[in-house]
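Tutorial, part two.
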Amino acid sequence: MKRYWLLFSQAVTVVLAVWFVLVTLKPDWVQRGSAFRGASIIEATPSGGSMVVGSFSAAAKKAAPAVVSINISRKSPHNGSQNDPWFRFFNGEEDDSNQAGLGSGVIVSADGIILTNNHVVAGADEIEVTLNDGRHTMAKVIGTDPDTDLAVLKISLNQLPVIVWGNSNTLQVGDQVLAIGNPFGVGQTVTGGIISALGRNQLGINTFENFIQTDAAINPGNSGGALVDTQGNFLGINTAIFSKSGGSMGIGFAIPVSTAKQVMEGIVRDGQVTRGWIGVEPAELTPELAQTFGVKQTQGVVVAGVLQNAPAHKAGVRPGDVLLKVDNKDVSTVGELLSRVAELKPGQVTTFKLQRKDDTVDINITPAQRPKVRPSKR
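Running the prediction step on this input gives:
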């Protein structure tokens, strides 16, 4: 045993001596080895170039050309009294300059259809679209849907880059994503992060909410831009952020492409989005409401009221019923119920499962078209 220990000690001494000689006489050899160990792994690409493993450059190159910058202008309202010299004397000259705004958009078809947010183009008198390749042109609004904060634009240019549609229904929390847009007007920018949550609603942003939450940096100007996966496929429209400073705080929200595509197709085909409506006043099922209506159910949406002669009233729905499923899909919040009913085709009979006292009941309801909300007069 003593002999083996002696051999080990001599071997360690020799190695340390060799290392000392190398550090003293050939330090560049040691540095070269360290640099190699700390370097990123590089792989050749089919085109003959190289790519850093773990890089998302291929996804960015695939999706970025189809993401555009949107600049809008709104004419300032002109006061007729401005022509009165006494008005100008007491109130000063009116500012006739146009109000400007900016955002982003996504080219989704070769014939120039662009998806963006309604709040980006709302009230715009002129809309200019700038492509990533430097081309720019004026756009016209095909239609808008304030209930989901989406708008569809059209431009007329040749050889347009088109984004590849992805599948937002297969997303999972933790998936990596990229956000592409034009924040603060600095130019096209790509940021990265993960899916933080799915199905976010009750945020008070839109009437119908089913947001993808991400920590990829989204800032003012990113609205209407693309959320894509690591293959560059289109997953959502970047829409809003939670922020106390006005900048990104790691909580951003995007409208999934499953919703955006449905809205776009309705606007392009019919000029509007057609949604189902049954005419109930829903409320979250709290212990207090459950006691008031005498139900033991702990999940679902309670019907607080039913409109006279509405589809639900004609089908026999009563106040106090707890809606559990719409077309075999669970509902547990008011937001989910609104979205499920909105997805229904008007005139097509649909089965609703509800709890009435101690009984579970299936009721067939024929939804009508959701009435348009009249703007309130101020």
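The domain at 65-154 is CATH 2.40.10.10 (Thrombin, subunit H). In part three we will examine how such features are distributed along the chain.
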